[in-house]
């Protein structure tokens, strides 16, 4: 029986070896339970409604429907579930499209063995984790003047930028040498100005409108 502390996970990955490897890796940690591991994401939206998972591991390139489209469908009815993209793509467009679709974080498949668990922890704590290579591409795409003025303070701009780099609230507090609750208060103000309700939505909107 799943305990209150156990986090439930859905996996969508067409490579059977990687799919089984992900399931085995997560099964070694008592804190996770894999509810379903599928070779495609055609039923992802229905699965999310049925299982109400805490985390989704989503490959980008799959037969029938790609992971980016699946994320869009899931976000149409569920804004809260954490979606971590598993990708071999090292190009700007796929990563940027996944972010804008509403994915919560990103991990290159070659880094799965040592970074999967930490990245899941990060995304569950409110962060938007990305591998360094992907974070760099995302930031390069963000180096444009904002079209909309949300009247952010300098501190709010700084925190939003750190959030877009994949930092959790705790990491931001540490980097800025501020109390966790102070960061939470600033982020609440940022959410209010952006009219969003989560880190995923804030990052997505900041990227779409080139706010950082």
Explain this structure to me?
The chain has 212 residues and is an alpha/beta fold. A five-stranded parallel β-sheet has the order 2-1-3-4-5, sandwiched between helices. The N and C termini lie far apart (44 Å). 50% of the residues lie in helices and 13% in strands. The protein has helices at residues 16-27, 44-51, 67-75, 92-101, 112-124, 132-141, 154-164, 169-176, 180-194, 199-208, and strands at 7-12, 32-38, 55-59, 82-87, 105-108. It has two domains: 7-138, Rossmann fold; 144-208, Arc Repressor Mutant, subunit A. The mean pLDDT is 88.
Instruction: List SSEs in N-to-C order.
Output: EHEHEHEHEHHHHHH
Structural class: alpha/beta
Helix content: 40-55%
Q: For this structure, what is the CATH class of the largest domain?
A: Alpha Beta
Number of E strands: 5
Largest sheet: 5 strands, parallel
CATH architecture identity of the largest domain: 3-Layer(aba) Sandwich
Q: Going by CATH, what is the homologous superfamily of the largest domain?
A: Response regulator
């Amino acid at each position: 029986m799943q305990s209150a502390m156990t986090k439930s996970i859905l996996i969508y990955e067409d490579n059977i070896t990687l799919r089984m490897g992900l399931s085995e890796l997560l099964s070694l940690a008592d804190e996770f339970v894999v509810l379903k591991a599928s070779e495609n994401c055609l039923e992802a939206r229905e699965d999310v409604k049925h299982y109400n998972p805490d985390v989704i591991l989503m490959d980008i390139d799959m037969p029938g429907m790609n992971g980016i489209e699946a994320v869009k469908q899931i976000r149409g009815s569920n804004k809260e579930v954490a979606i971590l993209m598993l990708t071999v793509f090292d190009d700007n467009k796929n990563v940027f499209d996944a972010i804008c679709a509403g994915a919560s974080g990103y991990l290159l498949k070659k880094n799965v063995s040592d970074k999967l668990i930490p990245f899941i922890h990060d995304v569950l704590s409110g962060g938007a984790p990305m591998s360094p290579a992907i974070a760099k591409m995302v930031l390069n795409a963000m180096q444009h003047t904002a079209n909309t003025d949300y009247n952010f303070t300098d501190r709010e701009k700084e925190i939003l930028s750190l959030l877009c780099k994949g930092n959790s609230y705790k990491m931001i507090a540490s980097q800025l040498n501020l109390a966790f609750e102070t960061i939470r208060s600033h982020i609440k103000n940022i959410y209010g100005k952006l009219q969003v309700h989560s880190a995923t939505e804030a990052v997505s909107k900041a990227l779409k409108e080139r706010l950082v």
